[in-house]
Amino acid sequence: MKLKFIGACHEVTGSCTYLEAAGKKLLVDFGMEQGTDVYENSQIPCGPAEIDAVFLTHAHIDHSGLLPLLYAGGFKGAIHATEATCSLCSVMLRDSAHIQEFEAEWRNRKGRRSGNDEYIPLYTMKDAEGAISKLRGHRYGEREEVFPGVEIRFSDAGHLLGSASIEVWLTENGETRKLVFSGDIGNTDQPLLRDPSYIQEADYAVMESTYGDRVHDKPSDYVTAFAKVIEETFAGGGSVIIPSFAIGRTQELLYFIRQIKERGLVKTQPDFKVYVDSPLAIEATRIFNENRSSCFDEEAASYVSKGINPLEFPGLCVAVTSDESKAINFDDSRKVIISASGMCEAGRIKHHLKHNLWKKENTVLFVGYQAAATLGRNLIEGAKKVKLFGEEVQVNARVMQLPGMSGHADRDGLLRWAKELKTPKRVFVVHGEAESADSFAGLLKENGMNAYAPYSGTEFDLLADSFILEAPPVELEKKKDISRQNTVYSRLLAALDRLSSLIRKSKGRTNKDLARLTDRLNDICDKWE
Hints:
alpha/beta, Metallo-beta-lactamase, Chain A, Rossmann fold, 3 domains, 7-stranded mixed sheet, 23 strands
């Protein structure tokens, strides 16, 4: 019964933990790394075809984004998640694949002129569709057996629609251990979603620490604080541009703006337009409405009970096509533009920044976490110029961050969640930048818990309650780009793993089938040698 830490160890993104028990090989999350990649990640200790199942905490790409790559490598098992997470992943993974393919097409178009090697997408739409076909939905609070000796239960983590902490019961050789994977723990008193639920007991916990070293500077009234930014910007003749995560944060902003308009808090232009320029956000908003009965908090549910859609209001405009997106920047009225991606690394927001960053009357408002080395983080940290589509753009607009608007629990919220576990044998601290993870692990120790912040590659024996390997930090000399040659080679290795698994399972087949397979493999070798 073994636990191995793969991703988001002393880093925030790329969540992945490997679990081996009851004769099964399991993953908890398989996320994409975003922003700066500081440490080298250990490889999953088996090929994708040998993974029996994935337990997915929520749909955000840093937790789910490599599932299509897993499928491309031969994964045939089920991906277990809440029903709402399955719905969100069905659009998010397709969107991610579209971005991968579009970027490859764009780079290859440019690369052919300069004689560069072909740029290979991380995965394709076919891979995303394959991963989506493996999703299996679960309801909150229902304990279910997925394999003999492996049971799971999803509890509301309050971070995103469908987000969950996952309880896992493992039984091997007559001994049972209970693990809890926190996923991303939500902030309290957030719009739309319920507060995170608490789990009362666990032998071991693997928990996040995104804000493990700080407390949110929370405004007493989000709506009033948000309205003030809009009012000040409109009074100066400008527009508000909001880089926003398409799923979760965009829906919260729509909820706030409905209240701003209801209460008449923007006097300068009370009938202002709000553009949502993200097909993904528009589709996600539909999914939010479909899951309102199982996920909305009391306040949001009260709107629904009155026949009011809490995510719609007069002046709301959506842009689906690229032509509709381009037209927004020809609208000279004062307006609010909400566009993805939230960290400004891709998507339509980059076009809006190109058109609006240089105008001093505008405000660029950040409302979510910005990973290190992203364009969003650079702007918040005071960049005077940025490059967008190869063009240098002067930053004259006011750049702000609305404090407290976080989907993550802060240090106090994380500590409250951990204390509810009573007396776990160990708490493994992941999903936080190095200072945050180490600081929070230290805080847990001060509160009497046996806490440890592992580096990637660390292995732990759950039955013996002891480390198999305490891996040292392995820093990268430069940022790793998993979408270029290294990834193509990784896919080749994954194909080799899949082939090896196929050959092992071929014992007992007819001699004719075995001979045909052997000849095909020899033909490939002859061609490439």
